[in-house]
Amino acid sequence: MWGFGGRCYWGRKERKREGIVVVFAWMSSQERHVKPYVELYSSLGWNSLVCHSQFLNMFFSEKAETLALDILNEIIEELKMRPCPLVFASFSGGPKACMYKVIQIVDGKCELQLNLDDCRLVRDCIAGHIFDSSPVDFTSDLGRRFAVHPSVLKMSHPPRILSWMANGISNGLDALFLNRFESQRAEYWQTLYSSVSLGAPYLILCSENDELASYQVIFNFAQRLRELGSDVKLVTMNGSPHVGHFRQYPVDYKAAVTELLGKASTVYSQRIRRLEGEGMSVEGGHDEISEPMSDLRKAAASPSQSFRGVTIQPSDHFYMPSSVGYYEGRDGGSLQDEQKEGLIHLPSPPKINAHGVLGQILFDVCVPKNVEDWDIRSSTSLSRQPYTSMRRHAPFNPIKCIRRSRL
Questions:
Q1: Widest CA span of the chain, in angstroms?
Q2: Are 261 and 19 in contact (CB under 8 A)?
Q3: What percent of the chain has pLDDT over 70?
Q4: How far, CA to CA in Å, does 72 sit from each of 78, 255, 285?
Q5: Which among 103, 145, 131, 155 has a CA at the least distance from the CA of 215?
Q6: Predicted structure pTM score
Q7: Crossing angle of the two packed helices 31-43 and 250-301, in degrees rounded to 10
Q8: Which residues are CB-contacts of 327 (< 8 A; sequence separation ≥ 6)?
Q9: 3-class secondary-structure state, position 206
Q10: What is the pLDDT of residues 164-221, one digit of tens each?
């Protein structure tokens, strides 16, 4: 109980599952204490990954961070085999001893980092939160009261020597880490509120008679989550002790948990459908752009065929005529044949390789090999002659025109 770190294990691990509940148990808890909750989740078709944290994790956040990373690695390994909804179930001091560090690592706000794909995988799967007798506001003297509380020690009257030891250790930790503890406390609450960005519903179970988890603190927490736009259900048990709500009100407790897990499954399914739709939209946009270019490349690679029949499909379908002109703007050339040929204006004309087959054909057409009848003069002499005298009038030879236009 008074050590560092903690341990985690699978309370139930079946291949056929609805989802995974990650249980952040209260300090001093043992496997037999958590077993009723594991069986409850199992009866609803959910697997359970249980985390037992040590008391000093509340003072030494790096120990909580290390434990949180171990839990995330276990979760990621399971989700990579088969993604499913995740629900975080936190009891008593479990959020401060480990759970809030899990959220920080997923958000990339810790020194210990995961790669972006793993963080995205976990974020996409988190679909619900359960707080049982939690969250607890860790004030400076709470550690002492927490250590000697009957619900933690499982004793109605703890020995006096144990109370002295708890007071001494708690006072020593407060003296050494008071400033650090208060800064961690602010960071802790900020992280709990930031979990709203995950878009998952909350179930909070509490009691007005709980001496460790103040009802007013929990009520204010639920109210703030609602103001931030979350789906929050606050269930108040009459007279039940700290982490004793399920034991005293099993029917009501199971009904509330069943409802939350059902919401989590729905949230996860809707999220996956939305992500798949976004992926299909991006992929479809890429195909719409690439298909016309592919058709043009095919036409350019087959010089024996004209551009007739090539279809551009970004949104509407345009049938390209046998003779098509391309230009970059209205200042780029003559538009005399626009109405005759139904000219299609493309903002970015495809580039033609001068050394390719199509480029060679166009070169042969535009640059005749026989230039014996051309009158080539210097630019100065050309500028002094009218346009009509720039070329000799030779007799019309139809055979020569046909030979020069071999396209």
A1: 126
A2: yes
A3: 57
A4: 10, 29, 35
A5: 131
A6: 0.64
A7: 60
A8: 333, 335, 345, 349
A9: strand
A10: 555 555 555 555 555 667 788 889 999 999 999 999 999 999 999 888 888 999 999 9
pLDDT tens, residue by residue, 243-271: 999 999 999 999 999 999 999 999 999 99
More confident of the two residues 2 and 127:
127
pLDDT tens, position by position, 284-338 = 555 544 444 444 344 444 444 433 433 334 443 333 333 333 333 444 444 344 4
Angle at CA of residue 60, ends 57 and 66, nearest 5°: 70
353-361 long-range contacts, CB within 8 A, separation 24+? 356/300, 357/300, 357/301, 357/303, 358/300, 358/301, 358/303, 361/303, 361/406, 361/407
Bigger pLDDT: 102 vs 350? 102
Cα dist. 92→47, 128, 137, 213, 243 in Å?
Answer: 21, 17, 10, 7, 7
31 versus 390: which is more confidently predicted?
Answer: 31
| CA-closest candidate to residue 243, choices 253, 233, 251 | 253
Sign of the C-alpha dihedral, residues 238, 243, 248, 254?
A: positive
Could you tell me if 89 and 130 are in contact, meaning their C-beta atoms sit under 8 angstroms apart?
yes
C-alpha to C-alpha distance for 362 and 268, rounded to whole angstroms: 58
The pLDDT confidence band at residue 112, using thresholds 50, 70 and 90, is: confident
Q: Which residue has the higher pLDDT, 345 or 216?
A: 216
Q: Is 243 exposed, middle or buried (0-12, 13-18, 19+ CB in 10 A)?
A: buried
Cα 126 from Cα 265, distance rounded (Å): 10
Q: Which own/partner pairs from 244-253 qualify as long-range (CB within 8 Å, at least 24 positions apart)?
A: 244/151, 245/132, 245/133, 245/205, 245/206, 245/207, 246/36, 246/37, 246/40, 246/132, 247/36, 253/40, 253/205
Q: Which residue has the tokens 């095919």?
A: 298
Q: Which token pair is 299?
A: 């036409």
Three-state DSSP at 154 gives coil
Query: In the 8-state DSSP scheme, what is residue 111?
Result: S
Coil, strand or helix: which one is 352? coil
Tell me which H or E stretch contains 192: helix 160-194
Q: Spell out a b/e string for 63-91, using b for 16 or more CB atoms within 10 Å of the CB, else e.
A: bbbbbbbebbebbbebbeeeebbbbbbbb
Quote the CA–CA distance of 215 and 223 in Å, as a whole number: 12
Cα-flanking dihedrals φ and ψ of residue 325, to 5°?
Answer: -105, 140
Residue 319, classed as helix, strand or coil, is strand
